[in-house]
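for the writeup, i need someone to sanity check this before i put it in the appendix. the sequnce is what the collaborator sent (i think, or maybe the updated version? ugh). structure was predicted straight from it, no edits. if anything looks off just tell me and ill rerun, i have time this weekend
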Amino acid sequence: MLGPTRPVPHQGTRARIVHFGGELEPGVVVAVADEGRRLGVRVRSGETLEFVLNPATARFVAEGVAHGPRLELLGD
């Protein structure tokens, strides 16, 4: 039986935010909505950033920003 090929997002999942230019920022998923297609991620500063799943690329991208950061899920 096949399982998911990448981490399934849930609260507590470790993540990495990749900013334009390659800067990496660690984060943790604190909210999951819309059947896993919308995530809230808390970063080191305490701020929560919102990401949505882009259906064309299957990547989580910053909500409302055309060329903003993208999210990589790292697992537990």
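The chain has a mean pLDDT of 88. The CA atoms of residues 29 and 41 lie 4 Å apart.
thx in advance!!
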